[in-house]
Each structure stands twice: as C-alpha cells, then as structure tokens.
Amino acid sequence: MEQYFLATQKMEQEVMFPSLLRGVFPQQEGAAPATGGHTDLYERYQLLKAIKPVVEKGLASVTDQSPAGTGTNTDASSDDDDTMDAQLEERLSHHLAGLQQVLTHLTRDTNALTRRYSQILEQISPSEGQPSW
User: In the chain, how many H helices and how many E strands?
Assistant: First the structure.
C-alpha cells in the first residue's frame, strides 16, 4: 500500500500539466491495456487521482473501526465462533489478496503514467547545451 501512495504522490508532484497527456496512449511495457476501449493517459490520470482519496478513506475507515466485544461465550457457541472465525480469516485473506493485486495494478499504471509524462516533457523542452533562441 505504501508503494501505491508513494507512486501517486510522485505522479501528483511531477504531472504539472495533465493536459499534455491528452491523446497519449499507454505503452505496452508498463501499463495494462484499457478495458472497454482506448483510454488516453489523461483519462487514466483523472481516474488515478479520483481513486486515491477513496483508497485513503477506505484505509482510514478500516483502521478507525474497532472490533465490538461479544460478551460471554458458552461452550456450544464457542465451537461455532471458532468455525466462523476461520471462515472470516479465510475471507479476509482472499479480499486482502485481491486488494494487493488491485494496488499493484494501480501502482504499475501510476508509475507508467509518470514515466510517460517525463518522456513527453523531455521531448518538448529544449536540450541542455543548445541555445533556445
């Protein structure tokens, strides 16, 4: 998760003119192909910017919630609780694995977008050592 936040922070710091990304499509190496048509990097930038607060809010809501006390357990309900706990742990593990995959995908897309933006800036800015008359 930290890698995702670092990647989005870097993207936000480096991409000062998002409009330069209009009409530029992701390169195959670092970005996943668009689902449902061709999405330019500007649209991806907007999407990645919109997702970040949702991820932050979701993370904050998870850390703010504390487990509620259940009171006393009888021996019969203790076995049911153990079974339910095992199922909950399995479901949580499944969801965390899915979340990790999504965050890895988002991080890869964010890094690819930032690299491509840097390439665009290098192409439009004058080379060092040459006069810019």
Answer: 3, 0
Name the packing angle between helices 75-124 and 41-64 (round to 10°). Answer: 150
Query: What average pLDDT does this structure show over 52-72?
Result: 67
Q: What mean pLDDT is predicted for residues 92-106?
A: 91
Would the pTM of this model clear 0.90, i.e. be above it? Answer: no
Q: How far apart are CA 109 and CA 39, in angstroms?
A: 12
Gap between the Cα atoms of 42 and 50, Å rounded: 12
> What is the per-residue pLDDT for 3?
92
* Residue 123 neighbours by CB under 8 Å, 6+ apart: none
- 92 burial (CB, 10 Å; 0-12 / 13-18 / 19+) is exposed
The pLDDT score that the predictor gives to residue 131 is: 54
Measured in whole angstroms, how far is the alpha carbon of residue 35 from the centre of its chain? 16
Q: How far, in Å, CA of 20 to CA of 42, rounded? A: 8
